[in-house]
Amino acid sequence: MWWLLDQFLTCPCLGRGKDAPLLPEEDSGGGADFGWAVAKNQRQRMEDAVDVQEDVAGFRMFAVYDGHAGDEAVSIIKKTLPDILRTHLQEEPDVEEAIRLAFRNTDEELMKTVLAAARKPEEVKVSSGTVAVLALVKDKDLWICNLGDCRAVLCTDGTKAKAVSADHGAEKNPAEAERLQKLGVEVRGGYVGDHVAVSRAFGNITYASGEKVKGIINEPDVYKIEIDEETDFLILASDGIWDPLKDQFAVTHARRALRTTEQPQDAAKAVVENAAKVSAADNAAAIVLVFKFPEPLPKRNTRPRMTLAGLNEP
């Protein structure tokens, strides 16, 4: 996969000026059964992104990325992960193993690219990084792949919110806190090694050693779900959504929009906009993938209007 390294050695996102945005800062879109929305909100730079690929080795792929310490890592991962994932899904019959290999190899290629393109690494100790949550859909099978603190939440049985993934952070996840403790990694204020606020991510390379920050791993959690009659829709979103909104509130806002307009794009926008009403301190990105549309809101019965002339009639 060295072609990926060659492709990005001259990537304009590496070493560019601070005023050159690479990721869309406020946008939305979608299709018949999915919608997405992103917003920079009050952050100085946009580091969140979404991606939809209709055919990755026979799977539909939906992804939300949340970068940190810059947008270099998220920009590269968004471009490279689908192709690497496609290769492993074609070569490896075990889907879960293919996903894990793809995440590992994507991170390795990112590290090579970042280290090779570094201008003045002595000025910055640690490179940028990104977390990600992906959904892969094929027939009735839904695979959720999570790395970091983006989150996947299902709406089931009409109205119920169910978190599928677990956030990877020492303060949010006891298992991750225990793993870091066993490694002798210090966590202060939620930050691993004083640099990263999550415990799993792509990137976050220490320039001095050429290795990832100790304790940060590229191993995703992978979940397989069977899509059935009780499966309504899925929300994939960054922590710019989940910090302000509880899972159930996000589902409620998305469902209300789907019942009102029957447009998944409006559902994603409703999630992003309602999160910003609570807090717009962080970038936000959301995808709503619909498996079964809710019943539309009942139409109000209106009486025919009488004209003024009609009021004077006997």
Write up this protein.
Residues 33-291 form the PPM-type phosphatase domain. Helix content is 31%, strand content 28%. By secondary structure, the protein is α+β, with helices and mostly antiparallel strands. It has a single domain (2-8, 22-291), classed as Phosphatase 2c, domain 1, CATH 3.60.40. The protein has a six-stranded antiparallel β-sheet with strand order 1-2-16-15-7-8. Strands 3, 4, 5, 6, 11 and 14 form a six-stranded antiparallel β-sheet that branches. The chain has a two-stranded antiparallel ribbon with strand order 9-10. The chain is globular and about 80 Å long. Residues 1-20 have low confidence and may be disordered.
Question: Which CATH-level-2 architecture?
Answer: 4-Layer Sandwich
Low-confidence stretches: 1-20
CATH topology: Phosphatase 2c, domain 1
**Proportion of strand residues:** 25-35%
Output the number of helix runs: 8
Largest beta sheet: strand ordering: 1-2-16-15-7-8
Helix and strand run: HEEEEHHEEEEHEEEEEEEHHHEH
- Shape label: globular
* Category by helix and strand content: alpha+beta
CATH class: Alpha Beta
| Biggest β-sheet description | 6 strands, antiparallel
Amount of helix: 25-40%
DSSP strand tally? 16
Distance between the termini: 87 Å
Mean pLDDT: 90
Would you identify the CATH H-level superfamily? PPM-type phosphatase domain
Radius of gyration: 22 Å
Number of domains: 1
Domain PPM-type phosphatase: 33-291
Protein name: PPM-type phosphatase domain-containing protein
GO molecular function: metal ion binding; protein serine/threonine phosphatase activity
Keywords: Hydrolase, Metal-binding, Protein phosphatase
